[in-house]
Amino acid sequence: MPEYPTALGASTRDTITLLGQDLARDVMGTVSFGELAFWLATQRRPGKGETRVFEAVLAALADHGFTPTAIVTRLTYLSAPDSVQGALAAGLLGGGSRFLGVTEDCGRFLHAVLADRQLPLDDAGWDELALEVVTTEREARRFIPGLGHHVHKDGDPRTPRLFELAREEGCFGAHLSLFAAIGRVHPRVLGKTLPLNGAGACGAALADLGLPLELLRGFALLARTAGLIGQLAEELRNPVANDIFLSVDLNNVPVPPDPNPEAQPG
Prior knowledge:
Oligomer: single chain
CATH class of the domain at 101-211: Mainly Alpha
Number of strands: 3
Strand order of the largest sheet: 1-2-3
Shape: globular
Helix content: 55-70%
Number of helices: 12
Distance between the termini: 55 Å
Largest sheet: 3 strands, antiparallel
């Protein structure tokens, strides 16, 4: 018979093991969910400081109001109240380059800049590197992930708090250092000041914790799952999805087709 080795969950008739621990005796009631999520992804148990920063990231990404992911979750539940999983999945599928995906995009971007490079020793060195990065991206007409926010134009309140927590716990590494420097120097190049958004700060913090870059969006989705459950719970208590639906359905205006010759077949 083939073997499929795993360090994750495994069961016998009498026990369940997880990460080499007895699930019932050593994990349940002992390990927080955030700590467990970190442990599952890295297969090493995080320190208290790492857990604090990681759980702060999860809190920062859990919910941000009536975003498209929240609206589509409520609307899907309106259409299929028998499918909570469908409503949650609909919201999670909307996690992309504009909402939630910035977390991974920013972490990957910062990591690519830092790869095979000698790290600066002080803020002046970080500012010099950040100036080079911002100038390069501006000349290439590319946006820097994590720079700017459609609501918090004067500063995202999550960002300084994450910086503070990471410094307190000794988890303020190269990714956060570069991200902070980008925040300081970009006005010299762009001619305007943009906020460092919380999703980008979360990506930098997760990268500094050594979490797999390929999974950073997964952690954002993990956090948002809790927020979407909250959206559904509020929809049950105070429904608004039908009003959202009717506001479109009752106010659509029929117009003649606008044929696009380039889109016609043949």
